Amino acid sequence: MGQNVATNCGPPPPAPRALLILERTCGGARLWWENSIGTCFESVVWIRHAISVGQTPSPLICHQNMSFRQRCSSVDLAENLSNSFEYAKKLFSDAGRLIILIVLDIIPVVNWIVVGYATKVLRESPRSDPPPKLEKYSDLFIEGAKVFFASLVYMIIPLGLISAGIGSFVAAMIMRGGPDFFSKGFKPDEIFLFGGAGLLFVIIGAILAFIMLIVVAAGIAHMTKTGSFGKAFAFGEILGVIRKIGWGRYLAWIVVAAAISALVGAVAGAVPFIGWLIRGIISPALMVFFFRSLGLLYSESTK
User: Fold this and answer.
1) DSSP character string of 2-39
2) Is residue 122 a contact partner of residue 291, using CB atoms and an 8 Å limit?
3) Contact partners, residue 40, CB within 8 Å, separation at least 6
4) Cα separations (Å) of 301 from 16, 221, 227, 232, 237?
5) pTM higher than 0.90
6) DSSP conformational letter for 33
7) Interval 104-141: pLDDT, tens
8) How many CB atoms lie within 10 A of CB 263?
9) What is the CA radius of gyration of the chain?
10) DSSP code of 203?
11) What pLDDT, in 10s, does the model give residues 186-229?
């Protein structure tokens, strides 16, 4: 009977917003909600039919021996961003919550509560649909503090190298002529001669900062999902997470996230007089957008 069902995959009906998907695992069956993906819909229809007639669906169906998990668990990056955008928009459905987030976000240190709220979004993704309630502020503050200090640990060496390099560079310039360095006839190449070590520190620090920025997002996601601060620095596990996601997909997400952040900042900054207000209103929603997107991305490594 299973073979007959598997070979009768007809044209799929219109895809609903979400589908209940079942995957066979070593320990039994696992259920999760996943957005529909065009080429996988046929398999989903078959699985739902198989469940209705009491069968155990095979993980290899309708796609020339490519596993259902391989074909259907990878959410396209565009779908990821679209889902995250729709999710973040729902923040504006609760004006009270949004206003509180905006006010908290503009207060240094207190804004860790907003970061903690975003980590709650990450932790609950992809299973949650509307953004969570804003409650238990002390717990959110602690979660936000974890993100801050984890990020600081990642960046402290690169920032230290860059700061030392700039300091050495400026010191060398002052020693060779002070603020009137150029007017006294010194050539720019003398700066590099006497501040060469500083320049080297800046270059090494910038390279390390770039590498750390790549890893830190996955590290924060791993820390949040596992509930352990130490997991933010479990580099073997973090690299394993990125490999499961796919380096190409992960790096593409990093580039797109950076581009969106830069674009939003540039547009808000270009608006005279009220640019700061626009940035303040958008900032919590943008953070929720990124953490939701990261949560969806991380979920790819667990399937």
Assistant:
1) HHHHHH---PPPPP-SEEEEEEEETTEEEEEEEE--GG
2) yes
3) 68, 71, 72
4) 24, 11, 17, 16, 11
5) no
6) E
7) 999 999 999 999 999 999 999 988 888 999 999 999 99
8) 10
9) 25
10) H
11) 555 555 555 667 778 889 999 999 999 899 999 999 999 999 99
